[in-house]
Amino acid sequence: MAYHSIYRGPLGFITFLLLAATTTIQAQSPGGRVTLSGTVQDARTGEKLPGAAVYTAGGQVGTTTNAAGFYSLTLPARDSVRLTASYLGYARATVVLAGRRTTTHVFALVASNELGEVRVSGASDVPLERRVEMSTLQIPVAQLRKLPALLGEPDVLRAFQLMPGVQAGREGSGALYVRGGSPDQNLTLLDDVPIYYVSHVGGFLSVFDANAISDIRLIKGGFPARYGGRLSSVLDVRLKEGNQQKLSGNAGIGVLATHFSLEGPLKNGKTTFLVSARRGNLDLFSRVASSLSSGGNSVVGYSFYDASAKVSHQLTPRDQLFAALYLGGDRLFLTQKPQTIAGPQGELRYRNASNLRYGNALASLRWNRQLTPQLFGNATLAATRFRYANEQTFRLEDLSPAGKLGENSRASFTSGVRDILVKADFDYYPRPAHQVRFGATAVQHAFTPGSNFFTSRTPATALDTTFGAQRVGAQEVALYGEDEIRLTARLSANVGLRAIRYWVEGQGFGGVQPRLLATYLVGEHTAVKASYASMQQYLHLLSNNGAGLPTDLWVPATRRVAPQRARQVALGVAHTITGLGVEVSLEAFHKSLRDLIEFREGATFYNSSQNWQDKVVTGGQGRVQGLEVLVQRKTGRLTGWVGYTLARNERQFDQLNQGQWYPYKYDRRHDGSVVLIYTVRPHITLSMTWTYGTGNALTLAQGNYNVIDQSYGLLSGDASDRYVYPEAEVYGDKNSYRMRAYHRLDLGATFTKAVRHGERIWRVGAYNAYSRHNPYYIYYSSGENDGYYTRGQRRLYQLSLFPILPALSYERSF
Q: Is 328 inside any structural domain?
């Protein structure tokens, strides 16, 4: 009875799991068994390789490396052990180790492109059907840099939009809508630390510079217990650690941006560094164009930047310390040249300016330690922030001799969120094909949903006022445990549990999220997979703007607004055609969402004197079901994939659409893509992508009528003495209209040439190669206007954003 009373409940279960794992570790006795451990890394740069396969002769016993490139194998003692490490895109390495004592070995793998082979580098070499995972997408950075890019700038998020189950919101947008979810339901991690806003240029480019990234993967379902806090996906991005062998760098310029990166060793090969910076070029054109078009009276500019820095230091053979920093932001500004007008006493001079800024800041300190040959630990301390600020200023000067008239005023709107995070994660390898992960996370949130500030100074008065939502603090603590194990020769599973406790405004929320994923081999190269995941999200994103700019508010779950919840089940088949090097996967999924929120009809957050909780409808539901097909080839001269998604995505709110279910605005029945990359020669690569999607759903007026309101007055000067009546529109069901289908062809070519001290790369291509007029938004127009009323029939018009756009960029590496 005492045992059950101590460990009763979800937190007790996690506590029991952690203590049991610790007891198992301490009780482990070699007794005829030895442990072989170490890391797998790139021979040229020293970069760790996550997901590399390490196995004994014949491949019967093996494991894969964790995110830090660490592996551990506990085997029966023998005279010697032949151990092999492999990673797709690298030549295999084999070593013979003493099999009667615990041994540490570092595998340094040589990239295939240095051996003259044509293979895709950076992906796991474990066959798809044998991985204890599903609904997981990985595109090697080297491969996505060869894909056609908007105006020649490679983008890591846009490449994932070409995969099944992932959609772009609208033309040109880099946001990810994963299996019916919205962008705020994606957990984006940069070196294990959340980052909130992931787009530049109004959503057309992501904040991730491909030159600073070593690995990126997207999880759509079957979520391991170590991930939590969002409903729809996990985007796990890893920064490079820096070249251990020599100083190297990369610099390039394109239409969208100019970038530079540098990496190398700092001290005796134990310390490495990476610095990377990127700046947008659009303001260089917009400044000149706006000045010319306004006769020099005003200047409009848009710019963005990203900067990353990372230092890695090997404290001891078992300890490694990392410090990372990321800064990124956007700025849209309008500056007006001082104008002079006539005043009551003489000339007056005035000047207007507006400035919109938003961006992320992130800093982290991480410590990796190999605690025992079987236990690996990772501790992280981090701070992350997103801030949005929109400011307008006005200055008026009296140039008359009296000079008594004048005004200096400023108005601003700010919002944001700030987190301080502490976490610890452990990987334990009790035996081959068995890995236990457990850990804990604590987060202090600070939300600023929206605050207005106004100040005005005149010779006679002074006014300062602040109104709107105040800062809200919240705390979140999570514990997790997961067990990945091969139960039989054919059956493997990952079973986990995540327990969360969240506090805000004196209110506590809690939840337990079970996770289960099973893989069963039905043949040598075929597996059936199934997964279940329960997710909870303790923050919301309020959005009433589809333009892509971050005019959105991050707000916490509160007493009045409950946390979001989701459950997802998936069933799939994975098969490898070994002779062709082709992987085929087929997955069906169903996801239900609860406690969603939306703005009330006509509500906006700019009226911040009203509490945001009074402007939303709550208790929303969502249901998404779909079928995804992916056929992918990763080796050979011709690589790429074909993806297709058949899905339905619906929402329901009691206070919207008369309580009836309606299509979500990004519901797409059909979504498909074809991606091909062909290596003509080792230094010449051709690529193409073609995408197709059902048009977005939206609500349109189905008719209009004149409102009888004579207060608008009698028109004078007209013999007919007409009255002018305002028009009102009649709407039907929400999102009952569909835009035209979307499709686009992009072409690209990459030319690489070895030059003195490095290589140079030219990228050319075309976005929307056959200049398809895809709809960005549509609107009604009533024809000509004679000054009093419009004539003619109302018609529906479409605005298209991008015709065919050429792409050109130049890079030089050394």
A: yes
647 and 592 in one domain? yes
Neighbours of 801 (CB within 10 A): 15
Query: What's the rounded Cα separation, in Å, for the pair 2 and 764?
Result: 71
Spatial distance between the Cα atoms of 80 and 84, rounded to a whole number of angstroms: 13
Q: In terms of domains, do 68 and 170 share one?
A: no
Residue at token pair 């797409």: 668
Nearest C-alpha neighbor of 204 from the set 167, 163, 157, 165: 157
What is the value of pTM for the model shown? 0.85
pLDDT tens for 420-440 read 999 999 999 998 888 999 999
pLDDT in the model for residue 418: 93
Domain at 149, CATH number: 2.40.170.20
Percentage of the chain surpassing pLDDT 70? Answer: 83
Query: Which residues, 6 or more positions from 126, have their beta carbon under 8 angstroms from its beta carbon?
Result: 51, 53, 64
Strand residues in 469-581 grouped as ranges (E): 472-486, 491-504, 507-523, 526-537, 539-542, 553-556, 564-577
Please give the distance of CA 241 from its chain centroid, rounded to a whole number. 21
746 within a domain of the structure (yes/no): no
Do residues 518 and 596 share a domain?
yes
**Is 729 part of a structural domain of the chain?**
no
pLDDT tens sequence across 581-597:
899 999 999 999 999 98
372-381 pLDDT per residue, tens: 989 999 999 9
Using DSSP's 3-state secondary structure scheme, residue 157 falls into: helix
Q: Which domain holds residue 89?
A: 31-118
Looking at the fold, whether 152 and 87 belong to one and the same domain comes out as no
**Is residue 138 located within the same domain as residue 276?**
yes
Which residues partner with 680 through β-bridges? none
In a shared domain, residues 183 and 91: no
Distances (CA, A) of 262 to 113, 243, 276, 311: 22, 9, 6, 12
**Domain identity same for 63 and 208:** no
For residue 163, give Cα distances in angstroms to 158, 199, 235, 368, 401: 10, 19, 14, 33, 69
Q: Are 679 and 118 in contact (CB under 8 A)?
A: yes
Helix or strand or coil: residue 396? strand
Q: Is residue 560 part of a domain?
A: yes
pLDDT beyond 70 at 719 = no
What confidence tier does 293 reach under pLDDT thresholds 50, 70, 90? confident
